[in-house]
Write a structure and sequence with these properties.
With about 90 residues, the chain is mainly alpha-helical. It has one domain. Helices cover about 70% and strands about 0% of the residues. The protein contains 5 helices and no strands. Helix 1 runs parallel beside helix 3 and helix 2 packs antiparallel against helix 3.
Length: about 90
């Protein structure tokens, strides 16, 4: 039987992705925020983070180092393609 992530994992990821969405909300349209939040609540956090990594560059967003560290940690923890982090790393305003 495969090992499934615990509810603590999902709660942690869900909470952190909601916070990330809130941080980036100024660059998002209301319908994008709604879709991202719906995906997060449906335990489709990977899809939500990938979507965010595609929306923010198009919106000419800039991200601080703390936010990029959070993204890096989430990408690693969730086992996502490093391209998700790389798309957002280009938005560093340092």
């Amino acid at each position: 039987m495969p090992h499934l992530p615990s509810s603590n994992y999902h709660d942690d990821v869900r909470s952190r992705l909601h916070a990330l969405t809130d941080t980036c909300e100024r660059w998002l349209r209301p319908n994008e925020v709604a879709v991202l939040n719906d995906l997060i609540e449906a335990n489709e956090s990977g899809v939500a983070l990938e979507m965010l990594s595609e929306i923010l560059p198009e919106a000419n967003a800039t991200l601080d180092e703390r936010t990029l560290l959070e993204v890096t940690d989430l990408v690693q923890r969730m086992g996502l393609d490093p391209a998700v982090r790389e798309r957002l790393a280009k938005l560093n305003r340092a």
